[in-house]
Amino acid sequence: MKNFKYFPISESQKRWAIYLTDCGKERIPAWYKNYPPSETPHFRTFTWKDGRVLDDYYLVYIAKGEGFYENQKSGLQKVKAGTAFIVFAHEWYRHRPDPKTGWESLWIGFQGDYVKRLVPAFLSPDQPIFALNRPVEFEMAMRDFVEGMVEAPLEYPLSTGGEVLALLGRLLELKEMDEPGSKYFYAVRKAQAHILRHAFETIDYHSLAKQIGVSETTFRRAFLKLAHQTPLQFQLSIRLKHACKLLEETDFPIAEIAQKVGFTLPHYFTRIFKEKVGHSPSRHKDLQTKNH
Q1: Separation between Cα atoms, residue 128 and residue 121, nearest integer Å
Q2: Nearest Cα to Cα of residue 260 among 204, 205, 201, 194
């Protein structure tokens, strides 16, 4: 039974800008004789000595066993069960199972214009390996996705690109949770949920920190580290997004919209909106009217 599949890419997928190119799984026994295995398509074979360069990006997860991964920037590194690594498009690399253990691996290949912008912003060939302390959930998601795609046709090619994006996002979240100093991950997520529910109200952040069981200083430091913005900036971004929606979809006066999203002073709302969005609320409404 074939354990991999390559997918034709349509013009609509290219316009969608993130799409699945191939995926599969392999089980390499201990003391194997050849790697890659003989059923690997000829255009994807390589030797350990020469390595290879691919046109697509790959997410590879090691479910069992151990092995090695190397690119020109990371150097040779050991990978084991519970580890994921990224293969970067147009970058030389090589990988193989440890002959003493073999391995079971799952992989997805992906590409697109959005991928080309996204990957450099969050991933680097310098640090391509993710040793997950809590890999079970991720492995289940990878396995369900790969096995489903191998066994069935690509019925929903655009939404499949979204599933690839979700897997990458989950990998980055797990990495973030496992980093030193990230023990407050769940506290920050709890705080974000509270802010989302009360975004248009005045929030007492000292009381919120006490409610989730940390000091205010620790809360603000952890929030900035994990959310990449302060609690107030996070709240403000929610208010402004909702304000944009109201400006685009309703005829409410700007002063009323300001009040609905938590600003008591319309002129302060206008100043903050222009500073963060790049133009005034009235200009935003005019632009939406012209576009429709």
Answers
A1: 13
A2: 201
Place of tokens 């289940």: 140
Residues 3, 26: contact at Cβ < 8 Å?
Answer: yes
How far apart, in whole angstroms, are the C-alpha atoms of residue 106 and residue 154?
A: 18
Instruction: Give the H/E segment covering residue 78.
Output: strand 77-80
Residue 47 to residue 38: CA distance in whole angstroms: 13
Under DSSP, the state recorded for 92 is -
Tell me which residue of 237, 200, 235, 205 sits closest to 220, measured CA to CA: 205
**Beta pairing class for 83-87 and 57-71:** antiparallel
* 49 vs 28: CA distance, rounded Å: 19
pLDDT of 212 over the 90 cut: no
Looking up tokens 């959930």 gives 137
Q: Which residue has the tokens 């997950």?
A: 132
pLDDT higher than threshold 90 for residue 90: yes
> Can you count the helices (H) and strands (E) in the chain?
11, 8
pLDDT by residue (tens digit) across 142-178?
A: 999 999 999 887 888 899 999 999 999 989 888 776 6
